[in-house]
Amino acid sequence: MEQASAAAVINARGIVTGWSDGARTLTGYPAEEAVGRSVGALLAEPPSTTAVAALEGPLVLRHRDGSPLPLTVRACPVLGADGAPHGYVLTAEPRPALEPTPAPTLAEQAFQQASMSLSVFDTEQRYLRLNDVACRVMGVPEDVLIGRFFPESVEDADHSRSFLANLRLAAETGRPVRYNSWAGAPALNREHAWSIEMWPLKDDSGCVTAVALAAFDSTEQYLAQQRLALLNAAAVGIGTTLDVVRTAEELVEILVPRYADFASVDLLPWVLGADEPPPAPDGEIVLRRVAHGSVTEGAPDAAVPLGQTDVYPPFSPPVRALREGRAVRSQAGEPDFVRWVEDRNARSPEGISHRKGVHSMIAVPLRARGTTLGVAVGVRMAHPDDYVADDAVLAEELASRAAVCIDNARRFARERSTALALQSSLLPRDLPGQAAVEVAHRYLPSGSLAGIGGDWFDVIPLSGSRVALVVGDVVGHGIPSSATMGRLCTAVRTLADVDLPPDELLTHLDDLVTHLATDDTGDEVAELGATCLYAVYDPVSRRLTMAAAGHPPPAVVLPDGTASLVPMTAGPPLGVGGLPFEAVELELPEGAVVALYTDGLIEDRDRDVDHATAELCRALTASAESLDELCDSVLKAVMPEEPSDDVALLLVRTRALGADRVATWDIDPDPAHVAGARQSATEQLTAWGLDEESFVTELVVSELVTNAIRYGEPPIQLRLIRDRALICEVSDGSSTSPHLRRAHAYDEGGRGLLLVAQLTQRWGSRQTDGGKTIWAEQPLPPD
Questions:
Q1: How far apart, in whole angstroms, are the C-alpha atoms of residue 381 and residue 403?
Q2: Cα–Cα distance list, 6 to 32, 71, 72, 91 (Å)
Q3: Would you put residue 324 in left (φ > 0), alpha (ψ -120 to 50) or beta?
Q4: Average pLDDT for residues 180-192, to the nearest whole number?
Q5: 779 touches 725 (CB < 8 A)
Q6: Positive or negative CA dihedral for 115, 117, 118, 119?
Q7: Counting beta carbons within 10 angstroms of the beta carbon of residue 658, is it exposed (0 to 12), middle (13 to 18) or buried (19 or more)?
Q8: What is the C-alpha to C-alpha distance for residues 727 and 434, in angstroms, rounded to an integer?
Q9: Computed over its alpha carbons, how large is the radius of gyration of the chain?
Q10: Three-state secondary-structure class, residue 762
């Protein structure tokens, strides 16, 4: 270097590599002390941004004797083979001694005092300037960083590499760069959210000479967005089912890992049952663990296994939250927190290593509609931040939403259980044994959110060994439908006792539904709509007579294996009113199988009804050792995987009473033939080996035949049927029904029917197409 010139050379990293004798004379530093040092170490105060950008301007160095040395410095870049600056040649001359140090410009003051982090890097990503906030973030003064390469000042992490890549991108492209980052900083004790903008600084020729950046700490806004996102996720993810346990699991899935490293949901035991909430206990509280989750797979840090109960002491945060009705925060170092952790460690020593580092806990009660259901707990271990007041507000909001969903699930489960119990009590359990048909049945309640429906079936013994087969479906779900089903089931049994034909019975039932709907108000009217199929099978004539009110037709399988739906007019549903019902009659061979069912078996929004009924007919023809086995195979083949409605299936196999079990006589309408009728009946009983029943039978035949001759109209017929009971029937052409009356002491007659009622098991009358039939049954000993 020329001694007359004060000059220095610095490399791309800001290290002095050359030092002239003029520089020694001007600054007092010999070359051996200056070469190898950072140029920033020689500065008494940082250069102005304007001077750095222009490569020319005032600069204050520190003289070797410690005094400030005002200079005017010019920098000339030294270009390498690639055309990029590899260093700078600096020339300096002293400013006049009387020239005062210029006051900072307004722009410099704005840069230095800005509330956000501002810094300037050269095109090689070395620090040129930092404002006060940037220095506080980095934790060191500006002169320590000036001239240093950025990666040397930070940890080697993804966010640091991303920052460096964006600096290079702005320098190389000459375009601004904006991005957000969640990262830490050397002087900060936790990660922060940063909104960063970088823009290039260009000279008059448009060349990029430096890159400036501004970093805004947006942590509070970021955390608020995260809390809002968590609430949105809870609104979508909690309450997807009406299952209490699953709802609790969904709450845990929302909390871990975004809000807690470990979370649990404990419910009061009554919530999982059908009981009403008991009074809040004093002191310890027993809770049942229904869900928990952890950032560690398998939740080894859980001290209470799923499904088990635990006794929570009064000092514990969960009990405090339940009693105070608000979120309770507890931090490491607090006495109750320490006691709680010690209690957990004593209860589950194997999880101690996984609980290491527990520093914050929050417990929030699950309350809905004024009722406390349980408590949710969140624990932080790896998460660096303690729970703060904003976290408590968020926890209470999440718990409130979850509690409403849990309470809805609890109420649904209770209503479903009540409706199922009500329906089960109304449906027949053990169908009476009889000779007319062999019976098998299945009832499957729906698992859908709509609840239990109003499907029902029944098998009702009728006079003359006949049997009534009933299947019906009430519109709607839940307790109202089950209650309506009970009304209709009772009404059908009552009307069946009157022995009405199927079409007339449905007409009376339709009137009943209409009256029930009229008694109710508003939307409840629609809930009283129903469908029903009523059929009567006579094993003597082997005839099946049926009528339907908006119900699917039954399927019949003949002994030869052919199956088909019975062609019939369904008629209007019950409750429409004013429209007739049409009866259908068909003769069945012994051994035919009749399938009666509700629409849940064949109808579904994703299924074709015709295809489903074809599957039903095919399934009914499958070989099976019993009707029960056939029931199961039909349901497996036809029922959808997830039925949206209840399914009732009633299978009956017809039997026939042969001529050897039925005896019929035509009676002339002359009282003189009553004795002959008694004699014929006695002889038939002897042939059947029923001599012991002769006395009562003679009396019954005598009374019923006498009444038919005296008060009825021809033709008159006597019939004896030997079934599980001995049945005596007398038919005549009159439609006038007999009735019991109390005879006075001086009356000569009027005691016959009373005597029949006393001597037989039951008696009654039914209307026929040609008149009426009076019947009486006597019990028979088992074969």
A1: 26
A2: 16, 11, 11, 6
A3: alpha
A4: 73
A5: yes
A6: positive
A7: exposed
A8: 13
A9: 48
A10: strand
> How many whole angstroms separate alpha carbon 705 and alpha carbon 693?
18
Q: Which two tokens stand for residue 435?
A: 């000779």
Beta bridge partners of 731: 717, 773
Q: pTM of the predicted model, to two decimals? A: 0.58
Structure tokens at 521: 């108000």
Q: Are 214 and 196 in contact (CB under 8 A)?
A: yes
Quickly list H helices, 256-347: 317-324, 335-347
Q: Determine whether 412 is exposed, middle or buried from the number of CB atoms within 10 Å of its CB (0-12, 13-18, 19+).
A: middle
- The tens digit of pLDDT for each residue in 255-314 reads 999 999 999 999 999 888 766 777 767 778 999 999 999 998 888 888 899 999 999 988
**726 φ, ψ (degrees, to nearest 5):** -95, 120
CB 344 within 8 A of CB 320: no
Residue spans of beta strands (DSSP E) within 602-735: 647-654, 662-667, 716-722, 725-732
Written as six digits, the tokens of 261 are 């490293």
β-sheet bridge partners, residue 364:
376
Q: How many residues can be counted in the chain? A: 783
CA distance 512 to 506: 10
Segment 130-158, tens digit of pLDDT: 999 999 888 888 888 888 899 988 888 88
CB 566 within 8 A of CB 556: yes
Residue partners of 244: CB distance under 8 A and separation at least 6: 267, 271, 272, 290, 406, 409, 410, 413
